[in-house]
Amino acid sequence: MLRRGRQRAAGFILLALLSASALGHGVKLLVARSRPDLFSAWLPMPVDWSYPSAHAMQIAAAALALFFVFGNRRPVWGMLMGMIVLWIGLSRIYLQVHFPSNVIAGTLAAVLWVGGLHALIFRQPGASSKEQQGERTA
After folding, report:
1. SS (H, E, C) 40-79
2. Can you give the pLDDT at residue 42?
């Protein structure tokens, strides 16, 4: 991407993933919610807090950032990335590492965070939102 003059897009993907990860781990420290203890664990539990799910937040951030950059060229990627986000979220619940609310919160936080970053980084100065929307669809 860097060789093709897409430094802004490459920076956006990197920033989206790193900042979403930092945000998720920061919120974990603030909320300090313990992990589920409903049944005997299948594997050793992570030692950090559980809310929000950092795995769900990171994969959702990566998938959405990639979709924003490449989705218009390969629409099937959006479906595949959505399925991967869903599978990882469900696996975190199945393995009893997170409550469902942890996974939902991590995914929604990533969507809001990456959507906001995209709006800030790719905003066209002086153009109204309707003009920008018309340019994207044309």
Report:
1. CCCCCCCCCCCCCCHHHHHHHHHHHHHHHHHCCCCHHHHH
2. 64
Residue 133 in any domain: the answer is no
Residues 89, 95, 99: CA angle, nearest 5 degrees: 60
> Using CA atoms, how far apart are residues 24 and 105, in angstroms rounded to an integer?
10
Residue closest to 32 by CA, chosen among 48, 11, 56, 8: 48
What confidence tens digit (pLDDT) does each residue in 110-124 have?
999 998 888 888 876
DSSP letter for each residue of 97-124: SS-HHHHHHHHHHHHHHHHHHHHHHSPP
The reply to whether 59 falls in a domain is: yes
Q: Looking up tokens 């995914």, which residue turns up? A: 107
Q: What is the DSSP letter of 80?
A: H
pLDDT tens digit sequence for 57-80: 889 999 988 888 877 777 787 788
Structural domain including 56 reads 52-122
Name the domain count of the chain: 1
